[in-house]
Amino acid sequence: MKPFNILILILVATISILLISPYLGLNSSTNAEIQQHILTQLRIPRILFAFIAGAGLAVCGMVFQAMFRNPLATPFTLGVASGASLGAALYVFLGFSFSIMSIDGSTFAAFLGSLIAISFVYSISRLRSGFSTETLLLTGVAISFFFSSLILFTQYMSNVSDSFQILRWLMGSLTTVGYRDVLQLLPFVSVCIAVILWLSRELNLLMAGDDIALSRGLAVQKTRYLLFFVTSLCVGAIVALCGPIGFIGMMVPHICRLLIGSDHHWLTPATLLFGGSFLIICDSIARLIIAPAEIPVGVITTLLGGPFFLWLLIKSRNKSF
Amino acid sequence: MNGMLNVQELNVEVASKKLISDISFGLEQGDYLCVLGPNGAGKSTLLKALMGIVKTASGDITLNQQSVSQLSQKQLAQHISYVPQAHGRQLNFNVADFIKMGRFPYHSAFSDWTSTDKQAMDRAIDITKTSDFLSRQMQTLSGGESQRVMIAAALCQQTPLLLLDEPTSFLDPLHQVEVHQLIRQLNQQHNISIIEVSHDLNHAAHHSKHILALKNGKTLWYGQSAELLQSSHLQDLYDQQFVFTPHPQTGAMVALPCELSNDVS
Predict the structure, then answer these.
(1) What are the residues facing B214 on neighbouring strands?
(2) Closest Cβ opposite residue B101 in set A129, A205, A261
(3) What is the helix (H) or strand (E) element at residue B62, kind and residue range?
(4) Label partner for A152 (CA 20 to 30 A): which of A3, A110, A177, A266?
(5) Range of the domain at A82
(6) Is residue A199 assigned to a domain?
(7) DSSP per-residue letters across A82-124
(8) Domains of chain B, with CATH numbers?
(9) Cβ atoms A275, A55 nearer than 8 A
């Protein structure tokens, strides 16, 4: 099938999911007014938020996979998400409370955290001569552990209510999302995705490796820094609002690459739509499976993602990206 | 010197290890330079330094009297193209998409694919005879096919200078001849200047115009290719005795490595 047709199919599926999912689990015995309220004030913002966050996480994952030519390289495996989490956890712990242009301070704290994490991982992996993806991944894992223990420490030192807040948030949840959060998230994710769409050709070249990219005239280092910056912004904003929802950035782009090929002119829009729909589906499962209670959506994505990660690890051994 | 490319006292260090020290040479438009030398002599590093892939520690590289340090990577890629050591088959690309990426230096973010781009691409495909496998994946190509695709992508850049890093090292004799014929055709018919890193010294001696012999990152010998087989430098270069004999078919002098005399017993 042509990439265009596949993209149309994904688009149709996405629209159906967007239209159907608000009505799932809507109790028909309650009166119409309450139903209406649940639908417009709770469900719709939550689904919009899930779509934007899922799209952002998936596209950032796609960028990392292309930049480092490895399906296991994502903002999560490289410690960017734990950097963001630490930033946001410190913001809660230290009792900061500020906002700039009506954007909550935790977003900036998370953005700083993710930027520090990626700078750290990237510069450490470049210290050793002969930059290799293995070094990069291992550095990312080490940094993730380091930041996770700092988060645990922060949580341990916090009072009970802060501690519970941090814990719930660390699991990744969309429970308390409202229109305000949608508006907070939208500018960051759209700027990030716009830049990434604009850099389709550059991403294609990065997938061919640094030597070929440079010989075709791509300023590799500059492009990489720009991509680090926008993905940190995007991951930071998402993590600050709904916690680190893992594995979407690894599963979705990889599946899309199998469906539509690795040309980023097609891959980026496909990943965006697929990622958004995927998080809506996971969130619906999280919401319905033990209704009326809910599981944090991060638990669902991680349950799916863990086995997928292992499958990739076994399958991609000795095979380049 | 006022050739198209001038390299003056070039030094390259990677992780504080000196890989290239004080190399100087010049290249005229239409020249065909072969870079010879043992493994680890700095041949590939020299090509990468010219292409801006590794940073130079000191020294000047000028293209048409302009220092390359003043050019952006994109501008550099309009002057020099590069075919890396064989790894085309590890790339997960469609052949046509890969060749098309050779037009990158002529595009900005929002520019469209023009008829100039199409002409350049068609011409590159035509010269390299790659039209039969445009729709295939790079991983499914044979070694010879993959090398022609790599050259086609570089030709898309329409540069006056083409750098080739061991373009025939992993090919069987038939495909070696085929790729070398293609390179000579590019040089003679299309007036593209060539710098080729090679281990095939007889090919270098007979088909290139100049030879730069490197050892331990230094220039050991630089001169007219035909003179290489008359000099004793070949032995110094490879730490190996050679015998010279006329080719039974063509009569041209060829160098053959001597059998190692010390017995293994």
Answers:
(1) B219
(2) A205
(3) strand B58-63
(4) A177
(5) 48-315
(6) yes
(7) HHHHHHHHHHHHTT---EETTEEHHHHHHHHHHHHHHHHHHHH
(8) 5-228 (3.40.50.300)
(9) yes
Q: Do B92 and A204 touch (CB under 8 A)?
A: no
- Asked whether the beta carbons of A310 and A84 are under 8 A apart, the reply is no
The residue type at A231: T
Q: DSSP state, A42?
A: I
CB pairs under 8 A between A and B: 70
Please classify residue B9 by burial: count the beta carbons closer than 10 Å to its beta carbon, then call 0-12 exposed, 13-18 middle and 19+ buried.
Answer: exposed
CA of A290, closest CA in chain B: separation in Å? Answer: 43
pLDDT at B260 over 60: yes
> For residue A78, what are its two tokens?
């490289």
Q: Is A298 part of a structural domain of the chain?
A: yes
Partners of A199 on chain B (C-beta within 8 Å) are 109
Establish if A21 belongs to a structural domain.
no
Tokens of A106: 């935790």
Query: Does B15 sit within 8 Å of A129, measured CB to CB?
Result: yes
In this predicted complex, what is the ipTM? Answer: 0.89
Q: How many domains does chain A have?
A: 1
- Say what the pLDDT of residue A102 is: 67
Which chain B residues are Cβ-neighbours of A220 within 8 angstroms?
73
Indicate the pTM of the whole model. Answer: 0.86
Query: pLDDT-based confidence at B189, cuts 50/70/90?
Result: very high
For residue A99, being part of any structural domain is answered with yes
Preceding omega of B257 cis (within 30 degrees of 0): no
